[in-house]
Write a structure and sequence with these properties.
InterPro entries: Kinase-like_dom_sf, Prot_kinase_dom, Protein_kinase_ATP_BS, Ser/Thr_kinase_AS. Keywords: ATP-binding, Kinase, Nucleotide-binding, Serine/threonine-protein kinase, Transferase. The chain has about 350 residues and is an alpha+beta fold. It contains 13 helices and 12 strands. The chain is about 40% helix and about 15% strand. It is globular and about 60 Å long. The N and C termini lie far apart (about 50 Å).
């Protein structure tokens, strides 16, 4: 973690110019900064009210949490901090995410909504991000998982952001986990059972994750007062229970492609378990990641690929006709083999996206 002078960050953000403002919330603002050497970063600055009070509590908490976590491709990582000792002004410098939030992609991008395969990819990456937090020692509870806190980098890889409300479990045993922190989060994503500090557990993040999954596939807001049933959970659960998948899914996308129906049904079933009113019946994030990988990888099995074989051959023939063909094989734990090739989940979803596009032609 780098230590920057306050003047250095002021220069990087053009003295916190409005032209560099990329985000704003109740606790402060986020600015785009360009460091010496050209590296682009994001800078979190507490609100004027908090600065007047010299209250860096939330920023200090986020710095503490992020600096304790391993660098990973699934989380918006810390780059460094800046602290002016005389004025007690403090700044957090993090990775710059150039393609905005999942919330914007879903709700403010009607001309080009994410494909089904891309949505499945987002769900899996988010699950892995939360799993990393929960597997930490002690476990980290994010407490504010929502679509506006999932950001895209320059390659459209989603990462979990904003750890200002995050807390650590006071005890490794979840049944005995107590914290002085009062319940916090965002209405619609917040677990209704999280009413007192002693209710703090990893299951509140699991609930929020389930809400985001429902939002990703339906493109409905977590709370929408213009709808007859304002809560996405109350609206979606009966439909999922009755296997009415098409009615849950984003209507802008038309008919579900045949290669995605089973996968989306599987993911919606997982989401339904995540938002169960019975906390004990909610799966852990490790179980969720395993089940999501199974949802994706099982689609490679022969009977399903046999049904898609003509389209698959057409795509491969087209690729072979180009001047260069590159096959990227990444060896992650969830990699699967097809013949002599090793395919990652990302590879599989990339191919499924090609198939999905072909089926809509």
């Amino acid at each position: 973690m780098e230590i920057f002078s306050y003047k250095e960050i002021e220069a990087a953000t053009k003295e916190f110019s409005l032209s560099r403002l990329i985000g704003k919330g109740s606790h402060g603002c986020v600015y785009k900064g360009v460091l010496k050497g050209g590296k682009v970063v994001a800078v979190k600055k507490p609100s004027k009210g908090l600065q007047i009070l010299q209250d860096n509590t939330k920023l200090d908490n986020e710095i503490d949490i992020l600096s304790s976590l391993p660098k990973t491709q699934y989380i918006v990582n810390i780059v460094g901090v800046s602290h002016d000792v005389l004025t007690r002004k403090k700044l957090l410098v993090i990775e710059f995410m150039s393609n905005g939030s999942l919330h914007h992609s879903l709700h403010n991008n009607s001309a080009n909504p994410p494909t089904w395969s891309k949505r499945a990819f987002i769900v899996l990456r988010l699950a892995r991000a939360i799993q990393i937090l929960h597997d930490s020692k002690p476990s980290v509870i994010h407490r504010d998982i929502k679509s506006s806190n999932i950001l895209f980098d320059s390659n459209w890889n989603p990462k979990l952001a904003d750890f200002g409300l995050s807390v650590r479990l006071a005890n490794d045993s979840e049944s005995l986990s107590y914290s002085p922190s009062q319940p916090a989060g965002t209405i619609g994503y917040l677990d209704p059972s999280y009413t007192t500090p002693c209710k703090l557990s990893t299951k509140i993040d699991v609930f929020s994750f389930g809400v985001v999954v429902l939002e990703i596939f339906s493109c409905r807001r977590a709370i929408d007062v213009s709808m007859e049933t304002s809560s996405i959970v109350e609206w979606a659960l009966p439909l999922i229970k009755n296997q009415r998948v098409a009615e849950v899914c984003d209507s802008r996308m038309g008919l579900l492609p045949s290669n995605m129906v089973g996968r989306i049904q599987c993911m919606l079933n997982i989401a339904a378990r995540c938002v169960s009113s019975d906390e004990n019946s909610r799966p852990s994030m490790t179980e969720i990641v395993t089940e999501l990988e199974d949802c994706i990888v099982e689609r490679v099995h022969f009977p399903i690929w046999q049904s898609l074989f003509p389209i698959y051959c057409m795509i491969r023939a087209r690729n072979r006709g180009s001047k260069t063909t590159t096959i990227k094989c990444r060896r992650y734990p969830e990699d699967v083999s097809r013949g002599s090739k090793v395919l990652s989940v990302r590879d599989i979803l990339d191919e499924e996206e090609e198939l999905e596009s072909s089926q809509t032609l």
